[in-house]
Specification:
This protein is mainly β and 273 residues long. Helices cover 2% and strands 61% of the residues. Strand 3 and strand 4 form a beta hairpin. The chain starts with 18 loop residues before the first strand and ends in a 19-residue tail after the last strand.
Length: 273
């Protein structure tokens, strides 16, 4: 086993010398209580794909880099009474400067404000009136990542915990009793698409990932769990969504944003050798 387990992918203890991406695939369960579409909580399957990328600012910088997340997900929760389906699909893009607060004995902590744009659509085809509900917004998230390298040289595993909490947003929501048909038809009751201030006073969201990284040669395999809980109360319309996913993934190093100079670096080697 010692011939296969090894390697030193980016772990936060050294300056980031290349673009490092962690690609995560998740599958699990989701529960959705969308008062606009149904008063009943729907539960079912959720699938997701998440790309976490660290971009180097400078090959000698050990404090700052750019962090990015791109996520897409879909779910099929059902009404437990009549088994009718609510289709849930959405995506999110986040980007911001990450500051490495400290590194100590295999432990590293990163902190970042992330500018985020997100959109989600819920679709319930068996409804006679309101068929869909769109959740969209843009704002600022607080993000942190804590990593610890286990002190086992033969199996150089790392444990990672990451958390993201939205701080302030402009969020779209229909008025109570208002149909999306009125938006499409240009009804006099609708003055346009309106975004409302959103923060801890009318909503809360937390996203967490607990991951175990296992380097095998020049690739890092990842297993773990992901959890998200979201609640909001806008225009007298309540919304709750929670999910728990099992995660598998892979990490890899690519070229730097500044060009292919890193490809000639001794820090990048052929993964087939």
């Amino acid at each position: 086993m010692g011939d296969w387990f090894g390697g030193e992918p980016y772990d936060g203890e050294l300056p980031l010398r290349s673009t490092h991406t962690k690609l995560l695939f998740g599958a699990g369960t989701v529960g959705v209580a969308d008062a606009y579409l149904s008063e009943t909580t729907h539960t079912g399957l959720m699938l997701s794909i998440l790309a976490q990328t660290d971009y180097a600012l400078h090959e000698e910088s050990d404090k700052w880099h750019i962090y990015q997340e791109v996520e897409g997900y879909g779910g099929f929760p059902k009404n437990p009474a009549n088994r009718s389906v609510m289709y849930v699909t959405g995506g999110r893009f986040s980007l911001g400067p990450s500051w490495r607060a400290f590194v100590w004995h295999g432990i590293s902590l990163d902190l970042a404000p992330l500018v985020t744009i997100g959109v989600q659509g819920n679709l319930k085809l068996n409804n006679t009136n309101n068929v869909t509900n769109i959740k969209a917004g843009f704002g600022l998230d607080a993000w942190t990542r804590l990593r610890y390298r286990l002190p086992v040289e033969r199996f150089p595993m790392r444990v990672q915990y990451a958390m993201r909490v939205p701080v302030i947003y402009a969020a779209f929501a229909p008025a109570f009793g208002q149909s999306y048909y009125e938006f499409v038809a240009g009804s006099d009751k609708v003055t346009g698409v309106t975004f409302y201030p959103s923060s801890f006073h009318n909503g809360f969201e937390i996203e967490q990932h607990l991951l175990l990284d296992l380097p095998i040669r020049h690739v890092t395999l990842t297993v773990g769990m992901g959890h998200r809980y979201r609640t909001s109360q806008v225009n007298s319309l309540s919304y709750r969504q929670g999910s728990l996913l099992g995660i598998v993934g892979v990490s890899f190093d690519l070229f730097r944003l500044s060009g292919n100079r890193a490809l000639r670096s001794s820090f990048i080697r052929n993964a087939i050798d």
